[in-house]
Design brief:
The protein is an alpha+beta fold. It is built from twelve helices and 27 strands. The strands form five sheets. Strands 4, 5, 6, 7, 13, 14, 15, 16 and 17 form a nine-stranded mixed beta sheet that branches. Strands 8-3-2-12-19-18 form a six-stranded mixed beta sheet. The structure holds FE2/S2 (inorganic) cluster.
Length: 525
Amino acid sequence: MTYSDKTDKKLPQFPEPYWRESLELPVFPRIEEDINVDVVIVGGGITGLTTAYLLVNEGVKVAVLEAGKLLNGTTGHTTAKITAQHSLIYDEFIQNIGRSKARLYYEANVEALSFIKETVDQHQIDCDFSKQDAYIYATTEKYAHKLENEAQAYEKIGIDGGLVETIPFDIKIQNGLVMKDQAQFHPLKYLAHLVQIITEKGGLIFENTTAVNVKTGKQATVLTREGARVTGNNVLACSHFPFYEGTGLYSTRMHADRSYIIAAKTSATYPGGMYISADEPTRSLRSATINGEKMVLIAGESHKTGQGKDTMEHYKALETFGQKVFGIDNVVYRWSAQDLITLDKIPYIGAITSSQQNIMIATGYRKWGMSNGTAAALLFRDMILHKKNPYKDLYTPSRFYVHPSLKNFLVENADVAGHLIKGKLETPSKSTKDLSNDEGAVITVKGQRKGAYKDKEGKLHIVDTTCTHVGCEVEWNDGDRTWDCPCHGSRFSYTGEVVEGPAEKPLQRHDHSMMENLTSEDSGY
Ligand code: FES
């Protein structure tokens, strides 16, 4: 039985990550009144909550503001590998930013891993933490050669690892590269424990509280959609895409990638370790114990958000791969993840601009948020307590490495400009009458481009497809039933609500009265 069998009762109608379904998290109130704290943290994922945990331990008064539910964003959708092996990166870093900075990046991520392990040990957190070796493998000659270069980079930096000839799967590889003693865990079990400590130590947490802007000054005030104002000496934007950009132009300096994950019960026993292919399409593997049974998480198929093929095909491709390598008995979960990628592939962590030192951001972790998010929290703590931190300059968002950032800057923005114009020029041939139940598409209504989803009961949900961020045209994501923006990765539910920023406002909805004013041919009724 597979996910494509819609009679499989174990699969939710809409994709939900295993991490969230397996845990009951505490519920926090919406903010009701203006408050003053030392530090305002926007975003309830691994970065925001780890920072809050570190700061309450130092006696700092914090408030965490989360637009939706805690741990429901990127952290809730990860594969939860905790590793400094971020696919092929160290050879590239040595070429672009030099050996000592490449080494610093490695150390920041290893320190983050050690911090998580120490925290798990200190509080005896039951979060399925286990040490695992991490492997990259290549199935083609081109990537086998790249792995050799990466292995040399490991040697130059002093990384514990090296080339291997085989991996314990039915995958014919040309080359493999191991990094020893990395780890995996259940991220929400770990962070739920930190949440408990944050609240015990007086930290404030608010859910369903959306930060929309900042009033800058010696103290900074976060303005919320709910009307309450939260003032602090520092504001930390830990909200995946920063909710406030200042003059930092972050929209032009990052792009969003979407990737897919299935959790499957397999016929073959998983041999341990964490794996990622160097070749495209990416395949990433780890094990997880789900309902007492050993399962395999298979991830990959990444593409720029809003620019992929039919999203269900990505899940099918992962299943086909899993079937070939392990034999799949059952796919129990599927979900997708969104990651932000900076121009030079190093996250932006630090002051939002050099002139606004009390507002800080952490974003652009590529696909490695468990270690980079924890490194960000450790850096934030040190910056707020005015302590030295060796990684401050490496991660500073005001850096500018001319090569290759400039080229990437031009490519990113040509891509956005292209999508801004392309969507406006297209006149989709479909109308609502072409839609079956549980189908969505961009359609034409009275000559206008609209987005329509016909739900399982046959009810139509129609939205304006112009993204409320900068105005690109959103595309239908069939796998998740969302509208995804190809420019900076905003995502909206089929009813138009924001699922993921940078957009803050929902897509404009068109209700039935609009549809009733149309001719039956236009509306498809
Ligand atoms: Fe920027 Fe849509 S996310 S235009």
